[in-house]
Structures are given as C-alpha cells and as structure tokens.
Amino acid sequence: MADWTFLTNHAHVLICVSRDPGLRVREIAQEVGITERAAQRILAELIEAGYLDRERDGRRNRYRVHPELPLRHPLERHHRVGELLTALKDDDE
Q1: How far is CA 50 from CA 27, 31, 38, 67, in A?
Q2: 92 pLDDT band (50/70/90 cuts)?
Q3: Spatial distance between the Cα atoms of 25 and 17, rounded to a whole number of angstroms
Q4: In the prediction, which pLDDT does 90 show?
Q5: What are the structural domains, with CATH classification, of the chain?
Q6: DSSP secondary-structure letter at 47?
Q7: CA distance 55 to 1
Q8: Is the dihedral of CA 18, 24, 22, 91 positive or negative?
C-alpha cells in the first residue's frame, strides 16, 4: 500500500457506504485499511456532521449518504459529495 493517498479515510468510508449501504463496520474497516474503532469514529463523525444517516435494519445498520452536501475544505467547498462519489464510481456499478 502507498505511504499516502489523495483521499482521506473519511472519503474512503463515504465511498464504501455509498457503494453498499449495508456494510458492517468490520467490512468498512477492512476495505479502507483501518481499525474497526477508527471506522466507528469516522462513521460517527460523518453522521454528526450530517453527511450520513444511520438506520437500524434488524441487527444491522444501513447508511444513507447526503450527496447534496458540500465538501468541507475551502478549496473544495463549491463541489458536492455526490460529485466526488460519481467521479469515483466503479465502472461496473
């Protein structure tokens, strides 16, 4: 794995959730390459900031991304989360 990447772990978690809203925290952590604890913290921060909603579905959580919200950094604020997710969408989706 590279020493650094262009996207943050927060962006990676958003990408995972947008691709599969029913992923478990363990699966998100594995995909992103972080600990489950870090994945839980990032999910909580994204929910608190309004970028995700969490809904219980039996014993699992399902997440919903709010693609209309702006990116947070001043250089990117004029772009929406949905634009990022669309740009990074897998070709087979």
Answers
A1: 22, 23, 18, 11
A2: low
A3: 10
A4: 81
A5: 9-87 (1.10.10.10)
A6: H
A7: 33
A8: positive
